[in-house]
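Record type: monomer structure entry
Structure origin: computed from sequence
Chain ID: A
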Amino acid sequence: MIHAVTLANQHLYARQLDQMFRMRHTFYVEGHGWSGLTSREGKETDEFDDENAVYLMSLDPFGAVAASVRLNPTTGPTLLKKFAAWSDETLPELDSVWDISRWIAAPQHRRANNPRWPSNHQRELMIGILEFCLSRGLTHLTMLAESRLAERIAAYGWPLRYLGAPREYEGGKGIAVAAEITVGWHVLALTRMKTGVAGAVLCEIGSDPEAAQAPAALPLPTSGELRDLVAEIGFDRLRRFTRALASGIAGAEDRPSAIELFGAINRLVEAAGLSLEGQTGAQSAATSPQLGAGAQPAIAN
């Protein structure tokens, strides 16, 4: 699960917050040697660790922080605003746009066996970020990040747009870039397909430590939005993926998750009034054209 830590519940996460700030010191201060950072007693914090900050944490079975990230609303101070000169565009100050920073993972959770993909905790964190964005009605994230992180985010399939050219910082210690990330249902669907994380992962514990809330119920998109989502993923790609998943479900190591994902994709398509066999809900079998292996569907907006 991904825990959303806010001002309202951070008293329940004292150990995890302390660990996260120490991880930040080790990574940014000791590892990168960044100047201008505020670090006291082995903990790195700055002015954006304020009452509006939200931390998303992936915890291991023992409650230790495996991976975390910070988000700040752009209606207040943000890291990118502090370095606004890195952007060639006016930075947003909107309820629908938040700034993301301090994305970090414990060393043992930075990479899975396949070096091209992040660890399980990192994959869940990606889903948790998108679920949090949807639960708050966000449309975009902004960030100032090292170029290699921005490149990895884009490689995962997140729609990322540079706001300025990548630049060296601190005399060549690294290269950073200001960027904007589009978030939404289509990004969440694509990320679930790529990561294999099918179930909801976001949870937000209330003031009562005994009452952990279930993941926030996300508003369902309209059928028109679902049609756009399916169109963006690519109907034929989605169909081929679903068939491959169905054929491999019997031998899947995590069969319940595979079945859940298979069912979720079918419900998604059905809610859009479409069929993975090439028919729309408004068409009969007699009149609906069957899509060939390489055909592109005509999906109404």
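Annotation 1: The radius of gyration is 21 Å.
Annotation 2: The domain at 2-203 is CATH 3.40.630.30 (Aminopeptidase).
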